[in-house]
Each structure stands twice: as C-alpha cells, then as structure tokens.
Amino acid sequence: AQKITQTQPGMFVQEKEAVTLDCTYDTSDPSYGLFWYKQPSSGEMIFLIYQGSYDQQNATEGRYSLNFQKARKSANLVISASQLGDSAMYFCAMSNTGNQFYFGTGTSLTVIP
Amino acid sequence: NAGVMQNPRHLVRRRGQEARLRCSPMKGHSHVYWYRQLPEEGLKFMVYLQKENIIDESGMPKERFSAEFPKEGPSILRIQQVVRGDSAAYFCASSPVLPPTDTQYFGPGTRLTVL
Q1: Which secondary-structure segment (H or E) carries A62?
Q2: Interval B30-86: pLDDT, tens
Q3: DSSP state string for B51-103
C-alpha cells in the first residue's frame, strides 16, 4: 500500500528563518513522483515543488527545496527566509504508475513576525 | 492560459438533493482527477478520468456518486441524495500526461455544505 506520513501537525517559525517540514513515504514502485502543495486559508491548492524518484539532484524552486533521501524514503520540504505569507497548510503527496496522488495529513505552518 | 476552473465555488444543498460539481481542466490537459477533502484532513483520491473514459474510480463511494468527462464540456462529479457526511471540499485536478512524471494542477475547489 502507498502511504504518505507527515508527523508534524503544526510548526512555528520566526520570520526570515528557515524551516523544514517532514514527509516520509512508502511505496514498492521504482518509479514515483513526490510533490509539495501549499493550501492557504483561502483553500486553493498551490503546487510548490516536484521530485522524481530517478532525479539525482534535489529539486529547488526559489525559496523552496526538497531534501530527497531515497534510502530513508523521506522528502522533506525546506523553506528558506520564511515570510508571513508562507503561513498555510502544507501537504506532501506522492504519485506512482497507478495514476493516483496520495496525500499526507498536512502540516500547519505559522510564521511569527 | 487559464488554470483549472471549478464551479460553483460554494454549494449548499439540503439532505436528499443532488449536487453537481463542474471542472474544466487546463487547456491541453486530458487527464482529470477528483479529490475530496474533509475538514482538518488531507485530500483523498476519488476518481481519475480521461475524455469519455473512467480510468480509476477506486476511491469513489459505490453508491450515490458518479463522475463523467464527456467529449465536449467539463467533467462533472454528481452526488445524488446528499447526506451531511458529504459536506467537504471537492477538488479537481488536471495533468497533461500520465503520472508520475508530471504534477497535477488543482482548481480552487467546490465547498459543499449539506444542511
């Protein structure tokens, strides 16, 4: 069975500091994709970053980077230089050749001024 | 290039009524997915469709729920005889190619409230 685990229900970070949101996954498929989405209080799902299972380099998108450790099956999101607008729910997701996306339960991030 | 569009954004129904949720994928995207998000939870997969075909409906309740993606027009998620437990946010996503090599782009969601 495919599974995504986010163990941090809530996180706090000081503005301008970096924060790491944890995500571990479980799959037996050799080919899969890992994603992070942001869901602000307005409710929409905003795509942040993607990492393919065969990618050698960690993905980066602006202030977002994905710390991909394949052997440990972890795909942590690192947000550098946090901003007040980063306060939101963050969801880790995985897709495989079975067409579905599997989502974790999310981490609520609060950026403190 | 417009993103994924969903309407209505908010829908209120009384128990026993029907709810119809619409989703127009991004231009050029032929894969559509529906997800349900209950309060305080992550998104749960419901169904995956391509034009005129249901590819995977393993996450869809067997009764009262149906989905279609006709040759012309938006994808429709239909919930018959709604109950209070159907109250949730329903998200549609689209992608241009098969997973896992590309992301899914989400619409703004439809928030269904059943009174």
Answers
A1: none
A2: 889 999 998 878 899 999 999 889 988 989 999 999 999 998 899 999 999 999 999
A3: TTEEEE-TTS-SSSEEEE--SSS-EEEEE-S--GGG-EEEEEEEESS-TTSS-
B46 to chain A, minimum CA–CA distance in Å? 9
Our measurement of the distance from residue B37's CA atom to the centroid of its chain's CA atoms, rounded to an integer in Å, reads 11
For residues A4 and A25, the answer to whether their CB atoms sit within 8 Å is yes
Residue B112 vs residues B61, B87, B92: alpha-carbon distances, Å: 16, 5, 13
Number of residues assigned to chain A: 113
Contact between chains at A100 and B41 (C-beta distance less than 8 A): no
Question: Which chain A residues contact residue B105 at CB under 8 A?
Answer: 47
**Residues pairing with A39 in the sheet:** A89
